[in-house]
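Board notes, transcribed. Complex of a protein with nicotinamide-adenine-dinucleotide.
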Amino acid sequence: MTEHINLFDNVNRQFDEAADILGMDHEVREVLKTPYREVSVALPIRMDDGTLKVFHGYRVQHNGVRGPQKGGIRYHPEVDLDDVRALASLMTWKTAVVNIPFGGAKGGVTCDPSKMSQHELEMLTRRYIAKISMVIGPHRDVPAPDVNTNAQTMAWVMDEFGRKAGHSPACVTGKPLELGGSQGREAATGKGVAIITREACGVLGINLKGARVVMQGFGNVGSFAAKFLDEMGAKLVAVADHTGGVRNAAGLDVAGLIAHAKANKGGVAGFKGGESFDAGTVFEQDCEILIPAALGGVITKVNADKVKAKLIVEGANAPTTTDADSILKGKGITVIPDILANAGGVTVSYFEWVQNLQQFFWEEEEVFEKEEKIMVQAFHDVHAKVQQHNCSYRTGAFVLALERVHKANLMRGW
Ligand code: NAD
């Protein structure tokens, strides 16, 4: 049984828990919750078979008081305006948690990229960017990759935006290295997830060496999180994705699984180094650490009770509903929220933007060193709020973010 979740309501319920702690009045809450601008566009595309198809695209700019709006572009059949709103709002709180000078935005196009050719995807991306080009730009709103978009998509974004604005690599992040991308950007979110997992294990008294990790999603975020956690001594015991599940109690060979997924359109199914299992039971698998790294709204009141992990680290955006949060809290399971756990990606996107504006490039070592510093600082800033207010990590992260955004808003004026 699945549960229909309105992700934007879910984020606003999380917001309210923190706003209650801060004693925020109704007016301030309304200002901080309401998106600054929402753009909805129709995208007619001539498909390879000659038919004309109209796709729908969105860009939601949630809040820009701390800097240009920032957030990824998602291509998925289930993308709708509410989802994009929720994800844009999360970006506002995420950039504030890691204290980088950006606001929050998100984009999405309702489409199924697995059924589209490269040429159709390029046409769709160019049409989408042409239609939202008046509201994006290096000092307005800077898109990035998200589910089903990648460095190639970002290259098309830069090229299309540049047709009108002139060469502007800082208009988008997550670009290929050859076009001004940053060293380390591809691995950044997964690396951040691993760093935050390590810090959380430190304060919770979980020995990361040998700790069993279960993961949903083995794309950009999941595969790099697995790689870095493996290097830290953790043991990946089960992974599920859209193609199926694979598990091995003795530990999966992470490098082998990454190579297998690469050779199989990103899917883990059919990996020989483990047995297959029903992907729908991934959250029930035995482990110390559970990392959802696929889509939102997957840990719900329907399955939260079956979770066996001690620690959940949200690699994905909005994977846990507020109902599930309460159940997990009752079971003594710690949840490290998306706005902290997966903020490594936007942090290195910020570095990419800085490098582009300066037309100057950093070595990977420098990028990772700076990412590590920001992520560790953010974890301990949130941990301090958790101790101060005796609250969950999610509420602690929201308290920190709300304070920062509200303060900036007050200084600038409404
Ligand atoms: P991706 O497209 O590279 O990978 C998505 C993964 O999810 C794949 O392994 C896919 O098989 C799996 N998946 C899709 N549908 C599924 C289903 N129904 N059941 C199980 N697995 C399914 O995407 P990504 O960039 O790794 O993003 C994953 C999550 O992390 C998303 O929630 C995204 O918003 C979030 N995120 C990504 C970044 C980033 O830098 N890429 C940054 C922050 C947050």
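The CA atoms of residues 18 and 31 lie 15 Å apart. Residues 145-148, 189, 216-222, 240-242, 266, 279, 293-295, 315-317, 342, 345 surround nicotinamide-adenine-dinucleotide (CB under 6 Å).
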